[in-house]
């Protein structure tokens, strides 16, 4: 069996051009490492049989049919979407930063694509909202396989230019989504943490399940610069020439304060908060999602 | 005040700009990063701006200081003065001992060791500051007029470097002196005066390393081996140079030898010039003069010795001189020359060599008075006009001056003696004179003290009590000892007392009956008999008394005794001058004895007129001398005031004898009374000759010195350098250790600050965090 796991490394995966392929690689790679197929989100009403394929839960093999035909058939049930997931991806300019070749946006893209793939594979519905200081595109959730292509297409045409306004966008999203669903926020959350939390709270208030994938670049977390550096702010935040060595402590403290505040806010509102370093393996996002999915059932 | 050993390193101070330049360059050279988390960065920057600035400044200061102190340390600064004392250094005390003996004047073309020595001293002084002190010694009596007993240092503890330089400047325009190196004395004084507690003592010995000077002290090495006892109560002359150097060393002074000696030491010198015969020069005699010539060079050489009398060349003698060995006696030869008949009066004789590198010892002078004749005044204490032969002095007269030519004997009785002036007498003989009037005794004392001679023959008429009172005076009188009891030997009984002729050690006796004078033992067979004599009590513990002849009686009684009295001599004969008490005249021994006695007594010590440089010229003068003028060889003229001491005759003393050559003394004498009215001038001569031993220019090698003075910290250099001085200074004024500690401390501070300010070592931590 091909070792799919290597495709969980964002750097390797970033070399793959097609987003649909990326998503498949991530998910297949992830699943091949699991003992149990994730595809068990089936409804109780039987619909038809389907030939067994690897990864299917053997619990669903219809042994009667096997006895008759000597073939493995899976019992399929009436499709019933019980989860609607909204992938809310930040496409602001700040997401375009990537010190290591993989920008936060690339990473976020991959996370969104992989999640979408996984969700639709599980017969759930996935929608996509992309925003910067406002919602830029909104693909409503569907569970058709063909919807996946539309999702990938939308994800593929990004041109980040604008500043972020996470809080406002989340408010907007909360107001837009009527039905209770799972909201997956993929962003660097570079905004006023209070406003971000207010937005998130709004979502929770609307009884949505919320996962926050907080994407940070490795450089943003460790500030590894040594030489005198001019930091050109993205999102028109001005330039700063500093000796990074002397400022590192202060900076890291700011970042850590910010993160802690967000995290604490999330925990208080029962929001799953997952910090994703752009160099961390992509399966973390999937695992978090699946854990949440399992919990929300 | 401070100086540097490697001042060139100070250019490295420019390196102190490096941290600043790096800082500025870093500010200008940056890479650009497009950055998303700008808000955090900005917030951190705003919060830390002030602290960052201070930290940056602090680090910059520390780094700049670090480099500056490092460069300073490498340039090896040393401090002087109060600053130095504050760090445990302190002002230094430099003692410069400059050899100015005449060997330092060895001509080496344009320069002499002395000139180089003065330059070295100036170099030393140029490195000193006002806090330092300088004591300057000359190894020879200096020309500023130091007298024996006064401190030799011409400068003592002087902080005034201008004054020191002025003195050295004056020295540099002078030549070396004419004296000998008194290294031992100077070192002895130094060893005594150096204060063990005073820090920073330096003794610079600037010398030509003349072997003779360095060995003169060793020769006088005392027998005692205990250094403590040796150093306790011994004078400089009794201590060896080794003792003195080690004492100076022990007192904490750093001794530096600065060798300014000549490259090629060569010298020929005349060591002595004297008449061959040991007796006074008398008119019309032929005199042979002997010049002793020394070669201190390594090559044998033939030299012409030119003999002069009163400046006029009388002839020359060529003598072959063997080469001198490196150690030991120099090459030596004697040049003999007979001078023609002499005229009475003051004369100078000289021997001269062709001028060599050291001209000062190429000439030797001998100044003396040639006498017309020797005048003897014989006082007869038992005159018998009727019978000439029974006179006490008849034998004397006949024995001394058979022909009244060169010795003139005047016989007088006691009464006419009382009226006579002793000024025109050389020898006074008192024969069997009962007693002498007290004032006349004083006159005789003066007469003998100023160089006259007295011979006293005892006899049956003398009054021992009065003589003991006037002539012995408890040892202060003229007689060598007291007269005890008379002894009369019964000659018929056959137990004659004879003169003991065994002991001929005294020169006078030796000249009469010694093996050379009397090879056939003519006078000793039969020895003269003595049957009447006084026993004498001659003290044996006095240096100025001596028994010349003994008798063979039971007590081995003295027959002829001598006392040195002032410049003159007294002979006391225990028996009579005629045949009354002995048979001296019969045996005939009287003639040679008296004859030699006369020469012995009148032989004026020529050393009084032939001095070493710096020795005082002293002379007793007549009360009628009004003024004395001394003409020096250089043309100088000095009027000397006579010094009158109570009860003594006036004397003149002249000290400025530093210049070798001929000195002429003019004595203006007032006439005495109507017959001898007006004034007249007497001229006397005296010479000053250098000590030829100083002309021994052979050197002691530095290696030998090091070996000889092993264990003593003795620096050796051919030239003084500030650098070596500074290195010697190290324990005192050098601060590089302190600077090194400062650098280390700053280094630690820098690392600490850099670590603390997030400038260093962060990466390691961060890497760990990422991993």
What does the model show?
The complex is a heterodimer of chains A (297) and B (771). Chain A is α/β, with parallel strands linked by helices and 297 residues long. Chain A has 2 domains: 46-77, no CATH class; 84-296, Rossmann fold, CATH 3.40.50.410. Chain A has 10 helices and 10 strands. In chain A, helix 4 runs antiparallel to helix 5 (145-156). The model of chain A is unreliable at 35-44 (pLDDT under 50). With 771 residues, chain B is an alpha/beta fold. Helices cover 29% and strands 28% of the residues of chain B. In chain B, the strands form 8 sheets. A 9-stranded mixed sheet of chain B has the order 17-16-18-19-26-25-24-21-22, sandwiched between helices. In chain B, strands 6-5-4-7-8-34 form a 6-stranded mixed sheet, with helices on both faces. A 5-stranded mixed sheet of chain B has the order 27-33-32-29-30, with no helix packed on it. In chain B, helix 2 (38-74) runs antiparallel to helix 19, helix 4 (113-126) packs antiparallel against helix 5 (161-172) and helix 6 runs parallel beside helix 9. The longest helix of chain B has 37 residues, at 38-74. Chain B is elongated and about 155 Å long. The two termini of chain B are 58 Å apart. Residues 142-146, 219-237 and 760-771 of chain B have low confidence and may be disordered. Chain A binds chain B through residues 93-97, 99, 104, 188, 190, 217-218, 220, 222-235, 237-238, 240-243, 245-251, 253-255, 258, and chain B through 26-27, 29-45, 47-48, 52, 55-56, 757-760, 762-763, 766, 769-770.
